[in-house]
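Appendix B. Chain record.
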Amino acid sequence: MLAGLLLAARNICQAWDFARSLKGDDAALDVAVEKGKKDYSGFELPGRTCGVIGLGAIGVEVANAVQALGMRCWATIRRSPCSAPGSCPPRAAGPVAR
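Structure tokens predicted for this chain:
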């Protein structure tokens, strides 16, 4: 999940294709890279919001990781265990505290 988040935020796949398509000597490559790298800057993750469905073992790890990246994290949790079908209380959603 985190790898996909970083790949999408920084346009890594598109930049990789751009870099592989470059041809020429060192001077020509330097000029082409400097002209083209602005197109693949992407966006910064700090301050963005990530939603996590469920705070089990994996959800907690994801929530901790995105908070370490400076992101806000909202998650859904079940208030109490379900004992019978149809008896589940509504799920609560809210910010995850550090």
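Further analysis of this model is presented in Appendix C.
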